[in-house]
Design goal:
The chain is mainly beta. It has two helices and ten strands.
Length: 138
């Protein structure tokens, strides 16, 4: 009787029993968003549940909290890219090093990382950090 019940539960709830294996989690930030790259291996009919929380390192205010679910029909070794955008963080600079704590839960893996949001670009031969020119001396 117990075996039949367990088999029936496996047939109705396969996602809760099978989870993809996470190899590496890499966060990449800009001035308004974060991209979380998750390298993983998954068998057919496995899933991956992602939860991310970003809090300010100084005052512990929550910048965002997101969840996502990915389902794999076939066996794969892949990288899932999860983008969280439309954020309004305090931008990092050498004068004002505003940092945030990122916690990502992917399956059984948990990543804790301190991150900063900034916009770094080069226009007409001049470096810009957060839309302000930076002059390098050397």
């Amino acid at each position: 009787m117990k075996t039949r019940l367990l088999c029936a539960l496996c047939a109705f709830f396969p996602l809760s029993l099978l989870a993809a294996k996470v190899h590496k989690i890499t966060p990449i930030t800009t001035d308004k968003d974060i991209r979380i790259e998750v390298m993983l291996s998954a068998e057919a009919n496995e899933s991956l549940s992602l939860d991310a929380v970003i809090t300010h390192a100084r005052n512990k205010a929550i910048l965002c909290s997101h969840s996502g679910e990915f389902y794999f029909k076939n066996k794969v070794d892949t990288t899932v890219v999860w983008k969280i955008d439309q954020l309004t963080p305090e931008l990092w600079s050498p004068v004002n090093p505003a940092l945030y704590d990122l916690e990502v839960k992917a399956g059984t893996e948990t990543l804790h990382k301190r991150i900063g949001f900034r916009k770094f670009e080069m226009r007409d031969g001049v470096f810009y950090l957060n839309d302000k020119p930076i002059y390098l001396r050397g």
